[in-house]
């Protein structure tokens, strides 16, 4: 029998098998939009998988997702046991976000807590969690959207409930990715050459001017030029 902590909308709770304490997944209450977007992205490698979903009342869904691994912060700061190389995780994370963008969506809450590192040492497909703020690339935001400290400056400066200028949401995700890369260079183990590249790319990605940020295709091209294949 499964046992789950009670959760308010937006909160998550671990779901375990009551008898064996075996991890089953993460349960959260969310809205129809997150479920709809996540369904459309299930074919992408690196997007967290839906284990179960049920509508409890209009626009309130119980969403249970499953992944195997540890979040990026834990991987970097207190890594336990084997795991993929840090540069492999960089490639995996950049790739999944690029694929999400190509599918017509943005995440808008990219941060270490929403990235899972697989337990398999040969698997570099970083897993992206929590699509609660995700939306179409064509949407216009009505205020700051994301986590403070991980939001692009043009997103953080938006006026609440005001008609805002349209911004390129893909470039906002790229800014957040740059912050994650810089977090990794401070916390994870890289070779000296890999660290230099990750720092250089991360600093370019967090440019205050969105137009000065590189595309994900450009970033991935530079990474692949160095590492070849992992």
Automatic annotation (TrEMBL):
Protein kinase domain residues: 1-230
This protein's GO CC annotations: cytoplasm; nucleus
Top-level division of the source organism's lineage: Eukaryota
A Pfam family annotated for this UniProt entry: Pkinase
GO annotation terms (biological process): mitotic DNA damage checkpoint signaling
Gene Ontology terms, MF aspect: ATP binding; protein serine/threonine kinase activity
SUPFAM superfamilies associated with the record: Protein kinase-like (PK-like)
Record InterPro entries: Kinase-like_dom_sf, Prot_kinase_dom, Ser/Thr_kinase_AS
PANTHER family recorded: OVARIAN-SPECIFIC SERINE/THREONINE-PROTEIN KINASE LOK-RELATED, SERINE_THREONINE-PROTEIN KINASE CHK2
Protein name (record): Protein kinase domain-containing protein
């Amino acid at each position: 029998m499964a046992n789950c902590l009670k959760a308010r909308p937006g909160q998550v709770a671990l779901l375990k098998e009551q008898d064996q304490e075996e991890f089953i997944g993460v349960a959260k209450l969310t809205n129809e939009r997150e479920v709809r977007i996540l369904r459309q992205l299930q074919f992408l490698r690196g997007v967290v998988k839906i284990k179960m979903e049920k509508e409890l009342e209009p626009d309130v869904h119980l969403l249970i997702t499953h992944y195997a691994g540890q979040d990026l912060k834990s991987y970097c700061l207190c890594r336990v046991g084997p795991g993929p190389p840090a540069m492999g995780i960089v490639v995996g994370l950049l790739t999944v976000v690029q694929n999400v963008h190509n599918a017509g969506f943005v995440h808008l809450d990219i941060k270490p807590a929403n990235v899972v590192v697989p337990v398999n040492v040969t698997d570099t497909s970083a897993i992206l969690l929590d699509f609660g703020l995700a939306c179409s690339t064509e949407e216009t935001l009505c205020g700051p959207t994301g986590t403070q400290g991980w939001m692009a400056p043009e997103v953080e400066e938006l006026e609440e409930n005001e008609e805002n200028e349209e911004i390129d949401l893909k470039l906002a995700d790229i800014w957040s990715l740059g912050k994650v890369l810089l977090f990794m260079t401070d916390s994870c183990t890289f070779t000296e050459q890999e660290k230099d590249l990750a720092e250089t790319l991360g600093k370019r990605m967090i440019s205050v001017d969105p137009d000065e940020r590189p595309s994900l295709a450009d970033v991935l091209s530079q990474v692949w030029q160095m590492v070849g294949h992992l």
